[in-house]
Amino acid sequence: MKIRFKKRKNKKIYASVFRSYTAVVVLVLMLACLFSYNLVRAYVYKHHSGELLKQAATIAADASEAPDWNTLKKYQKLLDARIIYVNARYRAVFSEDPDVKDEYGDVLITVKSIESENDRRIVDETLRGEKKTGISRIDFLALDAIYASIPLYNSSGEQYGGLIVACPANSVNGIWKHIITSMMMAALLAMAFVTAVTTALARRFTEPLSNMKDAALKMAEGDYTTRVKIFKDDEIGKLGVSINLLSERLEEVVQNLRDEKCKLEMVLENIGEGLVSCDRTGKIIHVNNSALAFLEISSWDSSNTPFESEKKEIILSLLKRCMENGAQENDTFKNRSQRDILILATPILNAEGLLLGGVCLLRDVSEEIRLEMRRREYIANVSHELRTPLTGIRGMIEPLIDNILETEEEKQDSYRIIDKEAARLEKMIGEMLELSRLQDGKNTQALERVDLLLPVGSAVHATRMLAEKAGIQLVFETDGEVFVFGVENRIQQLIMILLDNAISFTPEGGKITVSIQKGKCKALVKVKDTGVGIEPKHLPYIWERFYKADTSRMRTTGTGLGLAIAKCIVEMMGGCISVQSEPGAGTEFTVRLKYFDET
Question: How would you class 36 by CB atoms within 10 Å of its CB: exposed for 0-12, middle for 13-18, buried for 19 or more?
Fold first, then answer.
C-alpha cells in the first residue's frame, strides 16, 4: 500500500535555516550599530566638547582683566557659539550679536541674572576652579547647548569669574544626523549583502537535506529507484550515502518479495486444488481459478443462482467455524456437474498464535470415490465370476462323491461340466493375470515390422467356424499389404478379442466385417458388426475391467476383461482404439497403428 504525502509549498528546512541565519546576522548588525552609535556619539560630543574647551582656554588666556568684545567677536563667529562671562554674583555677561553696536560704537552687551539651579550648578563648578564640558539646557540663554566652562584669573592669579563657551546642540545634531544616515545606509547595504550570503549558505546547507527528504518521501511511496546526490564528504554526505545504501537494499528486498509474491500467486492460481482465503472478519480476500472452476462460477462477487450461493455459504460457514474453533473443519458437496468436492478449512495463525484469517482447500475427490467404488466392484465381480464356475464344479462333484449318479453316461456328463467350468475358470484367471501384466508393463515385447494381413487373417480364420456356428457371416476385406510397428501375436490376440466380442453381441443372421485400411497417418483395422449395439451411457466404461453393458443381450457369459486387455495391447504398441455404436444398428471398433518406416 502506497502512502501519499502532501508536499508543502514552503520548504520548511530552508525557511528555518534562512530565518535562523538572518536573525543571527540582523541581531549582530543591530548590536554593532547600537555599539557604533554610542561610540560615535560619545566620540563626536567628546571631540566637540574638547575643541570648545581648548577655545575657551585660549579665550581665557587673552581675557586677564576684562573681555575684549571686539576680539571675542572673531571667536564667537568662528566657533558659532556664545561666549559668556559669569561672576560670583551669578551675573552673566555676553553679547547677543557682536555685530550690533551701542550708541558709543561698542559691541552691545547683555547682562542677565542666573536664576536657574541648573545654570547656577554650571557656574558653581566654574567658580570652584573646575574645567567642565557637557550637554545641557542653559536657561538664561533659552538654548540646548554643548558647553565648556573654564575659570578666569587676573594677573595676580586670583579668580574673578568664569568663562562659558556654549555651542547650540543643533550644530552637533546635524553632524550626528549625517553620521546616522551614513550608518543606516551602511546597515542596509550590509543587510542586503548578508541576505544574499545567508540565502546562498542556507541553500547550500539545506539542498542536500531537501534532496534526502524528497528521496525519503519517494521511498515511503514505494519508489526505491531514487538516489540522493552527494555534495560533500561530511556528516550530511555520509547521511546521503546511508540513504542511498538503504534505498538499494530496500529495492532489492522489495524486488525479491515481488518475485516471491508472483511465484506464490502463479502457484496458487495454477494448482489443481481450489483455494479460498479470508481475513479475521470473514471477508474473502483471495479465490483462485480452480476454486471458481469447482464452484462453476465466473467470479466470487458475481451474482449467482441460489444453488451456487448455497455452495458459497457452505464455504463461508466452514471458514467461520474453523476460525471460531481454532481447528481444521471439513465438509463435502456436489457441484452442478455432480462432481464430489471436498472442503478442508484451516485457521491461519501468526508466530504468536494470533488469528489472521482462514483458508479453505477445495479438492475434487470424484475420481477417488469412483476408484474406491471400482475397487469394491472389482472385488465383487471377481468374487462373483470365481464363484460361478466353482459352484458348477462343486455341484457336479458332490453327486459323484455321494454315488448318486448310477449310469456311466450321467457320470460322463458330470465330468464334461466339471471340465468346462474348470476351463472357464482357467481362462478367467489367465485373462486377469494377462491384464495385470499388461497394465504393470511387465509383459512388454519389442516392436517389429509386422504385415497386418498375417495376424488379422489368422484371427479371422480362427474364429470363422465359431461365427458360422452362430449363424453369422464373417467378411475379411483388405487394401493389400500394410506394414506397421507391432507384435504379431498381440495383434492376433487383439483381433480375436474384438471378434469374440462381436460374435457375442451379434444375433443369428448378422454380419461381421473385418477390414484393413490405409489411413493418412496410421493404418486402420476395423471390426464392424450388425449386433445390438451399445447405449451411449455405457461407452465411457466399456474399457474397464469386469464392466458388462447388458448381460441379457449376450450370447455367452463373458468375464468383462476382453476390451480392457484389448486397450492395453493397443497402447503397448503406441496405437489407439475407439468405438462407434448405435443401439440396434451395430458397433464398430477402430484400431490405429503406426506405419513401419523403413528409413
Answer: middle
**Other residues' Cβ atoms within 10 Å of the Cβ of residue 5:** 11
Per-residue pLDDT of 376-398, as tens digits, reads: 766 666 676 667 677 777 777 77
Is residue 133 a contact partner of residue 49, using CB atoms and an 8 Å limit?
yes
CA distance 75 to 62: 12
What are residue 257's phi and psi, to 5 degrees? -65, -40
Instruction: Work out the angle at residue 583's Cα, subtended by the Cα atoms of residues 379 and 562, and round it to the nearest 5 degrees.
Output: 35
DSSP letters, 70-102, are HHHHHHHHHHTSEEEEE-TT-EEEE-S-TT-B-
Rounded Cα distance, 179 and 164, in Å: 27
Predicted confidence at residue 176, as pLDDT, reads: 66
**Which pLDDT score is estimated for 381?**
66
Helix (H) or strand (E) run with residue 483 in it: strand 483-486
Q: What is the pLDDT of residues 88-127, one digit of tens each?
A: 788 887 777 766 666 666 667 777 888 888 888 888 888 8
CA dist 551 and 537 (Å) reads: 15
Size of the chain in residues: 599
Query: Cβ–Cβ contacts within 10 Å for residue 229, how many?
Result: 12
The count of other CB atoms within 10 Å of the CB of residue 67 is 23
Sort residue 282 into left (φ over 0), alpha (ψ -120 to 50) or beta.
left
CB 126 within 8 A of CB 162: yes
Let me know: does 160 contact 153? Beta carbons within 8 Å.
yes
Does the pLDDT of residue 227 top 80, yes or no? no
Q: Which domains does the chain have, with CATH numbers?
A: 61-173 (3.30.450.20), 271-359 (3.30.450.20), 369-437 (1.10.287.130), 444-594 (3.30.565.10)
Q: Please report the pLDDT score of residue 47 as a whole number.
A: 75
Report the distance separating Cα 185 and Cα 172, nearest Å.
20
Overall pTM surpassing 0.90 (yes/no): no
What is the edge-to-edge ordering of all strands in the sheet holding 355-364? 284-287, 274-279, 355-364, 340-349, 329-334
Separate counts of helices (H) and strands (E) for the chain: 12, 18
Q: Which three cell numbers stand for residue 419?
A: 471340465
Q: What pLDDT is stored for residue 555 in this prediction?
A: 47
Of the ranges 161-175, 394-408, 441-455, 478-492, which is most confident?
A: 478-492
